[in-house]
Request: fold
Amino acid sequence: EVQLVESGGHLVQPGGSLRLSCAASGFTFSNYAMTWVRQAPGKGLAWVSAISGGGGSMNYADSVKGRFTISRDNSKNTLSLQMNSLRAEDTAVYYCVRVTGTGWANWFDPWGQGTLVTVSS
Amino acid sequence: EIVLTQSPGTLSLSSGDTATLSCRASQSVSSSYLAWYQQKPGQAPRLLIYAASSRATGIPDRFSGSGSGTDFTLTISTLEPEDFAVYYCQQYGSSPPYTFGQGTKLEI
Reply:
C-alpha cells in the first residue's frame, strides 16, 4: 500500500523557519516526482513546490520562491520542505503528494494526511 | 499561469439527484491535462478523475468527467450521501505551476 506520512508542522513565529518531512513507502520512490500542496484554514488548495524523481529539477510557486526549498533523499524515501522567513499567510495544512510519474505532466495521487503549520506570534 | 474558475461555488441537491460541476480555464489546457479531486471535512483530497475523463482506481462509475480545451465538467449521477463534499479541478500541464480551481461545495 502506498503511504505518505508528513511530520514537522507546528507553531512558529513570523520570520522563523521550519522543516517539513514526508516519509514515503509502498512504491519505488525515485521513480516519481513529488510535490507539496497547502490549504489555508477554510480555503482551497494551492500548489507550493515540486521536485523531479531524481531530485535534479525543482519548481516553486511565486508566493514561496526564495523562501522555501524542496529536497528529497531517495536512499531514505524522504521528501522535505525547508521553509524560511515564514509569514502569517503561510499558515496552512501542508500535504505531501505523489505525482503519478517522473515527468511534470501528471496528476496527483495519493495525498498524505497533511501536517499543520501555524505562523503566529 | 492558467487560472481555473469553478462554478457554481455551492450546489445544493438531494440524494438521487445528478450534479453537474463546471471548471473553466483561462487558456486551453494542453492534452486535457485536467484532474478532479474530492475532499471531505478533515480529510485529504482524493483523486477522482484524470486526463479529463479517466476514472481513478476504485472510483464508482457514477462519477464521470468530460470536456476539452477550456471547458470541463464533472458529473455525478444518482448522488449518494457520501458524495456531499468539496470538489476541486486542477490542471497539470507540461510544466509547473500547477493550478487548482477554488472549489465547488456540494451540499444537501
